[in-house]
Amino acid sequence: MIKGLKICGVSDPETLNYILNHPHPPKFIGFITNYIKSKRFVNYENLKELIKVNKKKVKFVSVLVNPKNEILEKIKNLNFDFYQLYDVDPKRTLEIKDKYNIKIISALTISNREDVNKYKDYSGISDIILFDSKGYHKSESFDHHLLNEVPKELNKMIAGNIKIDDIPSIKNKDYMIDLSGSIENNEGKKDLTKIDKLLNLFKKNET
Q1: Is 54 exposed, middle or buried (CB count within 10 Å of its CB: 0-12, 13-18, 19+)?
Q2: Which of 5, 33, 55, 169 has a Cα at 20 to 30 A from 61?
Q3: DSSP 8-class letter at 189
Q4: Whole-structure pTM over 0.85, yes or no?
């Protein structure tokens, strides 16, 4: 069965509180911390206030693209359980993990099998390997069949334009899933109706 659900790109208190108080909350919520090109980016001052909440059992994830020491120092005492790192090599990943005593999701952007095989460089360092598209914030797709040879025991997550209605067809997979764009309206804002549908459908297909 699917191992868990992550809702990414939450940027406002109304959406966050709705998710946290839903009868079937996700395992993870992600916040875009330093990638200002994303429409889901939350600046530091707003982020600090946004996540100053009771998370209940939900894990908070700081999504970071090639983070510099300055931003890592600023967020080190915030209410995060994981750092999700894009464009960070294994050596730097280990440095961040050890220095900040934080769990790591290493995000690999995929277009071919060679990209997939990079997981081997991170498997002894990272707590979760995320296989994502090359689109970053654009919710593009990649061929999930490229993951067929990835070991079942690897703790993995997939993203890349996954739709709510895809969940029944992937319920027997051995990974977590990460959604963002498919639960937004035409203006790019999180849609509470879509989030409710996602969380209820995920619960229905979880077992």
Answers
A1: exposed
A2: 169
A3: -
A4: yes
